[in-house]
Write a structure and sequence with these properties.
With 162 residues, this protein is mostly helical. The chain has 8 helices and no strands.
């Protein structure tokens, strides 16, 4: 909502920010379904990796999105809404596939709690940064999440190869 609100400071069109925010967030449900189908074809790990890459790229190019025409900006936000959530169910799947049977439930709960904690911390960080940074640049800091996830996925991949 902050992104849409900021981009709408000099509106070229009359929009309902609440509805547009809902659509941008709700599209994540569709992303979960699509990533589920992709994981059957390409594997959960590859699909999660690809999703993390796209999410990180969206964070990094977010300042450029403010330069797009308004409709292009909205398309960017919807795409970002798709890729930012697509990896979450895949991580649960990876944990369920790889955890020992006696700790599988606990492992899934821990991963889910970590995911929600990261979400809450990110929201609080953005609230803090919104008072101190130009909104066009503050979303770049969110790229630390996908980059960290990708680093761990790479390190696990190297361990499994050796």
């Amino acid at each position: 909502m902050l992104l849409i609100n900021y981009s709408n400071k000099h509106p070229t069109e009359n929009i309902n920010i609440a509805t547009l925010s809902f659509v941008t967030i709700a599209i994540g449900g569709l992303a979960c379904v699509i990533s589920g189908y992709h994981s059957v074809i390409f594997g959960a790990k590859k699909t999660a990796f690809f999703s993390l890459c796209l999410s990180g790229c969206c964070c990094l190019v977010s300042p450029l999105a403010f330069q797009l025409p308004f409709i292009g900006f909205i398309v960017f936000l919807i795409f970002w809404g798709l890729v930012v959530i697509a990896d979450s169910p895949l991580f649960s799947t990876l944990v369920a596939q790889n955890a020992a049977p006696q700790i599988k439930g606990t492992a899934i709960v821990i991963v889910t709690c970590i995911g929600f904690s990261i979400t809450i911390a990110s929201i609080e960080l953005l609230n803090y940064l919104s008072a101190h940074l130009d909104p066009r640049y503050m979303f770049m800091i969110l790229s630390l999440g996908p980059v960290t996830g990708l680093m761990y996925m790479f390190s696990e991949r190297r361990k499994s190869i050796q």
